[in-house]
Amino acid sequence: xxxxxxxxxxxxxxxxxxxxxxxxxxxxQGPSQKVTVILSTVAIVAHMLLLVNSVFRADGQxxxxxxxxxxxxxxxxxxVTAVSLKFPATLLLPVVYGFAALxxxxxxxxxxxxxxxxxxxxxxxxxxxxLSLLAYCILIIATLYGVQFYFIDKRLKRKDLAxxxxxxxxxxxVERQLYLLLNLGTILLTLALLSGFLFLDGMFAKEFIHKTIxxxxxxxxxxxxxxxxxxxGWRGKxxxxxxxxxxxxxxxxxxxxxxxxxxxxxxx
Length: 268
Prior knowledge:
mainly alpha; 3 strands; 3% strand; flat
């Protein structure tokens, strides 16, 4: 009952925060930062308590794909909310808040029980997991910045006056933050892969080979885009689409097989 209550509270306040930002998306002064912070803080705290009660259970730790997805989502929400306090992120907030609300509600209906009786704490494993989580979150945020860049650029090319007088951030600021996050995320993903090869056995074992290959493919795409931007000035719509493809491949690597095993196959 506690988990259901926390889920409803988190989802409700995420929806309220999303509605508030969207209602003033093209307003010159933008959404009220105070109202946004209050609504999102309640949602974030409820989300955190939901995680604690979902993962740490009396009979063990539930590290199912749903709980890992909730944790990843929480990190992204906290990061984007923190960034929005200093830099305008008007388009990003409703996306991350809206997705967090949907994921929270979905967690009530998706079967997710993968109980571990104990957690074996190994420095190499913890390092790999931490770097992987940070890399994924930062690269997803970079992808969201790419979508924001594409949206603003498209509206400007159409000479949409609404966007000129809106609270949306300048295009050059969005682009600069996009490539900063892309570079940082690519470096962290590189370190995550290296730590996996150094500390873990069986990166190319049958049960992990698809994850390793997809991660390497995503890393290669991100790296090529980052280097291409630095060396040859690549930018614009093709770059944004390429980043979105790489993010999709990385998501498949992180969550694809576990979703099939824990959710789809579990139903049959």
